[in-house]
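Workshop exercise sheet. Pairs work together: one partner reads the sequence aloud, the other fills in the structure field after running the prediction. Swap roles for the next sheet.
Pair: D.N. / O.F.
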Amino acid sequence: MAEITQLLIHWLRAFYLIEITTLEPLALGADANAAVYKAKSVDTQVYFVKVRQGPPAEAPIEVITLLQNEGIKELISPIKTREGHQTLHVENLMLTVYPFVEGENGFTRTLTDEQWILFGKALRKIHEIPMPKAVEQRIRRESFSTKWRDSVRSIMSAIEGDCDEIGAKFSAYLKEHAGTIADLVSRSEKLSKKIKGQSFPFVLCHSDIHAGNLLLTNEGGLFLIDWDDPLMAPRERDLMFIGGGVGNVWNNSREETLFYQGYGETELNPALLAYYRHERILEDIVDFAEGILLNNSSLEDKNEMYGHFLGMFEPNGVVDIALQADEAIVE
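Structure field:
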């Protein structure tokens, strides 16, 4: 930790001309390949610093630039390096620096009525942005992959083994609710077949616009953050979060009404909504399994992950909502 801190302080001085006095790690996000920090400079400015391990990913920055050029104000622009670049690539790391915006995410603070409407307006504008071919070709495209279904099947067939106390509880819960999980996989499979062969307009999607990726400012505004994985997909890829209950929030009809008051009229495909909600649950099961059973996470982190995992199966949680969405489809 001390080594990366000193490196970041050095890089910020050398490439951004920012003299840092304090660098504080922040416990935000679920990306195991990324870390974020709150940095304070000698001139009392505050910055949000994100460092990500892996190959360079310029598409997210290009998307933010495109959206801001199209007049989308609910985004935070990265600060450029002294050479005018919006990201810095050093060894196998990508560094992005933003101005630090005070506020809370949608998990810790409830959106006001006005923020729900503003959120809807902003996402509608994003979904209607005409995509330049050069940018679109650099963005991942929805393929309706079997990845998460296959991964969950593998986990359920191999949940025996040595593990710590949290891992034992997690494994026991998987076994006890194997029928429910198998039903989720089966329903997702059927939904994928239902939508296969259909034609959908693809739009620019954030792809992970849950409550944790909305920054609610103290002045009543909001920002859509964490554009690490933009996706060309049907708009239902984003809209499934509205009323979807991820994190046991955004699960009541009044909020949906306010959101769509801002978003405007749109004809949603019920099978797509249900499909995406099932797939999200399967993806989260895989992520929790990896974090609890495979990674060298602390017991505190594992316990937190286990709590979030259990929350998916609570009344009016994501599992209930996904099943209801599937059952509501009119053949």
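Discussion prompt: The chain has a mean pLDDT of 92. What would you look at next?
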